[in-house]
Amino acid sequence: DTVNYMAVCDLILAQIIGPPVSLIERLAGQIADEILAEFTQVRAVKISVHKPDAPVAAKVKDISVSIVRTR
User: Fold this and answer.
1) CA angle at residue 13 from 18 to 8, to 5 degrees?
2) Which residues are catalytic?
3) Other C-beta atoms lying within 10 Å of the C-beta of residue 32
């Protein structure tokens, strides 16, 4: 079976504009968990979240986290 990518995008957007979270790790986890819950044909998901210009002491363009979830 195929996945409706528009529906996946809608789900991701809803998480991004939903209630704020303090950590990008939490946002990535919520997105991954929702995708696995909503789309039973998905066996595994890898989510990467980037935070440009993160407030850290080092001069960096971007900080990111990636997580993998499987059934």
Assistant:
1) 130
2) 51
3) 20
- In sequence order, the β-bridge partners of residue 50 are 64
Helix, strand, coil content of the chain in percent (nearest 5): 40, 25, 35
Among 55, 63, 6, 66, residue whose Cα is nearest residue 32: 66
Predicted confidence (pLDDT) at residue 59 exceeds the cutoff of 90: no
Q: How far apart are CA 60 and CA 56, in angstroms?
A: 8
Total-model pTM? 0.90
Query: What's the alpha-carbon Rg for the chain, to the nearest Å?
Result: 14
Q: What is the pLDDT of residues 9-44, one digit of tens each?
A: 999 999 999 999 999 999 999 999 999 999 999 999
3 state SS of 69:
strand
